[in-house]
Amino acid sequence: MDFDRRGLLKVAGLTLLGLSVKPGWQVFSNEEPAEPSPDAETLARKRWGMGIYVRKCWKEEGCRDCIDACHRIHNVPDMGTLKEEIKWIWKAPYEKVFPEHEFEVTQEDYQQKPVMLLCNQCDNPPCVKFCPTRATWRREDGIVMMDFHRCIGCRYCMAGCPYGSRSFNWRDPRPFIKKVALDFPTRTRGVVEKCNFCVERLAQGLIPACVEACKEKALVFGDLKDPKSEIREVLKFKTLYQRMPELGTKPKIYYIL
Amino acid sequence: MTPILQHSSFDWALMIDKRQKIIGEDRVLFEHIWKTGKGFYITISILGALVLWGLYAYVTQYRTGLGVTGLSRQIFWGVYITDFVFFIGISHAGTFISAVLRVLKAEWRRPISRLSELTTVFILMFGVGSVLIDLGRPDRMLYAIRYAHFTSPLLWDVCSITTYLTVSSISLYLALIPDIAMLRDLGGKREWFYRILSLGWRGTEEEHRRLDKAIGFVSVLVIPVMITVHTVVSFVFAMTIQPLWHSAVFGPYFVVGAIFSGVASVIVVMAILRKAYHLESYIKPIHFNNIGVFLMAMTLLWFYFTFAEYITVVYGNEPVHMAVFWSKISGKFAPLFWLHFTLCFVIPLPILAIRKYRTIRGTVIASISIVLGMWLERFVIIVPTLTRQRMPVEGAFYVPSWVEWSILAGCISLFMLLYALFTKVFPIVPVWEVREGREKASASVAARIESYMPETGSSRD
């Protein structure tokens, strides 16, 4: 066969293209589920949820037991400014959490009262869709997890979350932690973090720290798939609210008025 | 060492004759490569200083974290993401002027095709760079490829922008080859460099035919890629469920805005190069006029999309959307909103619409206004939504810090610096295309016009 330069280039190009088909296909057909947990089946039997008795929470004014308990064990820093604030569980005025409950005839008395907010652990979490690296993902038991070591800090999950549940480490948080809890990782600057439903305590058979810390028993936690669980009993006969259910995220934090 | 020295002993006359033949009547197109005036060194020094200043700002940010910006928990995207959308938008110019006008066989595009393609390729790098600057952990940027999660619109951006950068670089390079070969034949101490890049171009008919085919193919290919690029950029916002981002009109709205700002910046680039490199006889008032007419159409189209976007929101009257809407119209973003509207519409429209004002000076003023206005437009789209997503938070404010402004200044300076250095190596007006136009265009245009004419009895024979 007679090869001029052009012919050689053509053959070489086609060969390279042919050789790249298989690896290329492998990269783009990579549809493995996001690293299934070793005990995915066991996890999937449960669906964790939380109920919040809004009125019980108002009994003691200025109480922040749940916030302090959570932030202490999770090494959440106190940055001191609103700008760089990091929070996993926090309070906001009722009228801002449930603006749709405001009517012309509403009594003013509870509009300014605090409501506890935390990650809604959605069944259909927008943040998970938006993460370009799968640094945040939904575990089989419904907990939206966060890998601080894979997060590239693009903050797209924050744009995706309609609840403002996520915080970003604008600077190194370590100097701002009062006392470092050694059994939970600290974060570096440049990554996003949020409530993890105390996944590390659930693994030990404990309930979340905020639920444990509440003296008024305003927070109820349990397995929504178990018909005999405490949370199912609590949720059964009450009128329940969720934050922005119309967005289709299916939050798993229920508010009981 | 250099070929000139070897030849100089015996045959100066022949040598000069050969050079004269290559340069022909287009000496001015080569002059900016050979002659470097004081103005050039001053410009380079100023730009270099600004680049270093921007670099210092970035090092500061890299060492202490994004806390040195004005960004906050609530308003977590600001100047950098605005720059990203803005720079990628500017990059649409090259494709429009070079590829679309080529496909449409607009002969007047010839002298300005390279300068607009170059704008595309260089500014695109800064679009990508702005996102990387915005990352909290830039050291992990490759995780986006290693752990690529394709449900994220950011990955769509990675794909389409990479494709666009590749295709537009190829397009720029292809049209450079014949000019590189001329520079190679002219000799000099950079001959080896041009020899490698010219790929053995000899300028035969067959080579020209193949090059034409290749450029034609790339021009057609790059147009849909260009449209996907800004569509996907808009999807970064439109795919979220945030008020005033979650809009189906965002794709075309962003593409129109991109071509609008891109073409305006090409007018500015044209004016600067024309003045600095004495290209008055190549880049003429007719070029400014023609692009000016197109820019006027884009002004109206931009207004149409802006109107469609906001009227839908107002008529729907949903509280979360209206809260953001009013913050733009009469709230704390009102000065920026109305400034951007003035710069993008009120100022350029009359200038571009009235023939008397559509001069070089007029189109340049309108273009500068549009470029500034479009940066503000991106800002006014991104930031107000973040101040009040679905739940207003106290104390949400954003004032960009010196770091953000310095990095923006550094990026623009580096862009201009690279551009200036390019003109020291390659001609900025495609010499061969201009010659091809001079030699063949009138005949081919005449033939084309002839083919439009109604056929008469005599021509059918």
Folded structure, characterized:
The complex is a heterodimer of chains A (257) and B (461). With 257 residues, chain A is α+β, with helices and mostly antiparallel strands. Chain A folds into two domains: 1-30; 40-256, 2-Layer Sandwich (Alpha-Beta Plaits). Chain A has helices spanning 5-28, 40-44, 65-73, 94-97, 126-130, 156-160, 199-202, 209-213, 230-236; strands spanning 48-53, 89-93, 114-118, 136-138, 144-146, 167-168, 192-193, 219-223, 240-241, 253-256. In chain A, a hairpin with a 5-residue loop joins β4 and β5. With 461 residues, chain B is mostly helical. Chain B has a domain at 37-144 and 240-435. Chain B has helices at 3-8, 12-23, 27-34, 38-64, 79-90, 92-103, 113-134, 143-146, 153-174, 177-186, 191-197, 205-238, 250-276, 285-316, 319-329, 334-346, 348-353, 360-387, 402-422, 431-452, 457-460. The model of chain B has no long low-confidence stretch (mean pLDDT 89). The chains are: A alpha+beta (257), B mainly alpha (461).
* Sequence of secondary-structure elements of chain B: HHHHHHHHHHHHHHHHHHHHH
Number of helices of chain A: 9
In the CATH hierarchy, the third-tier topology of the largest domain in chain A is known as Alpha-Beta Plaits
Query: So, CATH architecture of the largest domain in chain A?
Result: 2-Layer Sandwich
Helicity level of chain B, as a percent range? over 70%
Largest sheet of chain B: none
User: What structural category characterises the helix and strand content of chain A?
Assistant: alpha+beta
Q: Largest protein interface?
A: A-B, 46 and 46 residues
- How large, in whole angstroms, is the Cα Rg of chain A? 24 Å
Low-confidence parts of chain B: none
Number of helices of chain B: 21
Distance between the first and last residues' Cα of chain B: 64 Å
Largest sheet: number of strands, sense, barrel closure of chain A: 4 strands, mixed
The number of E-state strands of chain A comes to 10
Silhouette of chain A: elongated
